[in-house]
């Protein structure tokens, strides 16, 4: 019988230093799977994917406007070779491709067709942060808005918003050693929807590592 071991680690973006911490400190802030409508942190508007368009609704004026058509993002995304996209089983309670606001309510992070896009909430300008045939999973903006962390395969990476420079944070990830990827039991039994988290100062990322060997 195989037994799965789970470790919660921290990785520093400055020194790639790791240390083990306890799981309980993150349970309260893990959150639930996002709703279709996503409120901006400043409470003035919310974003919604509607009829294949990304729209913004202004709460005060009760007006709406379209930022971008998702067909535009679809066309820009890098497609994998035909028939080669790997099967990636995901628990229905796990976060994988939800759009999220930046902390300053100025932009929206929009994963689409495996790549990651940043959309300016005022102008609708689109920045493509990743361009790979692989799927970038569960992307998250840092609190300072300068970087995005995501999982590719079973390892974690960051990409700088300004330069688009990509950095690999973990290595050795596999089906047996999962960095930042949830085992089935955690969404179902514990209520975790993700397996990695930014620190408030944007210097650290806490992540779960599962050893199923």
Overall description:
With 213 residues, this protein is mainly β. The protein has one domain: Methanol Dehydrogenase, Chain A. Helices cover 8% and strands 40% of the residues. It contains three helices and 17 strands. Strands 1, 2, 15, 16 and 17 form a five-stranded antiparallel β-sheet that branches. The longest helix is centred in the middle third of the chain and has 7 residues, at 70-76.
Question: Could you name the key traits of this structure?
Answer:
213 residues; four-stranded antiparallel sheet; five-stranded antiparallel sheet; 8% helix; single chain; Methanol Dehydrogenase, Chain A; mainly beta
Quick description:
With 213 residues, the protein is mainly beta.
CATH class, anyone?
Mainly Beta
Helix- and strand-based class? mainly beta
The CATH homologous superfamily name equals: Dipeptidylpeptidase IV, N-terminal domain
Q: Which residues form runs of ≥5 with pLDDT under 50?
A: 21-35, 91-95
> Architecture, according to CATH?
8 Propeller
Strand count, sense and barrel status of the largest sheet are: 5 strands, antiparallel
- Number of domains as seen in the coordinates: 1
């Amino acid at each position: 019988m195989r037994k799965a071991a789970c470790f919660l680690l921290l990785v520093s973006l400055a020194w790639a230093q790791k240390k083990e911490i306890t799981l309980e400190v993150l349970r309260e802030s893990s959150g639930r799977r996002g709703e279709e409508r996503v409120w901006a942190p400043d409470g003035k508007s919310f974003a919604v994917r509607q009829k294949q368009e990304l729209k913004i609704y202004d709460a005060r004026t009760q007006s709406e406007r379209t930022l971008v058509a998702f067909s535009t993002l679809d066309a820009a995304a890098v497609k994998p070779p035909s028939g080669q996209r790997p099967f990636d089983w995901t628990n229905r309670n796990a976060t994988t491709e939800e759009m999220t606001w930046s902390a300053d309510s100025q932009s929206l992070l929009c994963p689409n067709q495996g790549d990651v896009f940043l959309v300016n909430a005022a102008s609708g300008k689109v920045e493509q942060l990743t361009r790979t045939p692989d799927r970038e999973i569960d992307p998250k903006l840092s609190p300072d808005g300068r970087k995005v962390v995501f999982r590719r395969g079973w390892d974690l990476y960051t990409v700088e918003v300004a330069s688009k420079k990509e950095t690999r944070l973990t290595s050795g990830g596999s089906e047996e050693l999962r960095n930042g990827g949830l085992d089935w039991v955690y969404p179902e039994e514990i209520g975790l929807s993700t397996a990695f988290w930014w620190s408030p100062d944007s210097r650290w990322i806490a992540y779960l590592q599962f050893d199923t060997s």
